[in-house]
Amino acid sequence: MNLKEKKAKEYQDMVKAHEPRTNLLKNCIFAFVVGGIICDIGQAFLNLYSMYFPKDEAQTLTSITMIFLGAFLTGIGVYDKIGRFAGAGSIVPITGFSNSIVSPAVEYKKEGFVFGVGSKMFLIAGPVLVYGISTSILIGLVYYFVKIFPKI
After folding, report:
1. What stretch of H or E contains 88?
2. pTM tops 0.85
3. How many CB atoms lie within 10 A of CB 89?
């Protein structure tokens, strides 16, 4: 082992020694509980909307409400605190997607609406949207042509 490799190993050992330990069980429980609470809130909105609207409209209104709540809580700085506490429990529901779009926009709002908010809004979610939409178009085309030409 040469000197460079020895220094690299020493550095890695030092990093491991000072790395904060995580409690995996505690983190999983927090993620499960907070994710469940977010889903319970969504279910409560769905139940409420289902009393006044048809099922499809109630589901759409629930999604819109949860996206709004995620964006609103991100804008006032509450969702980041929930995320630090819950970890993946706050990322998985639709509110986490809303948070991933709004967070960069809020961070860069000082640069203006066009070059700040507008250009940074889809910084994280943009690739997900592009690949998701592209894949859905390709799958739709394949489905369309398979349906038109079933015997080929």
Report:
1. helix 88-91
2. no
3. 24
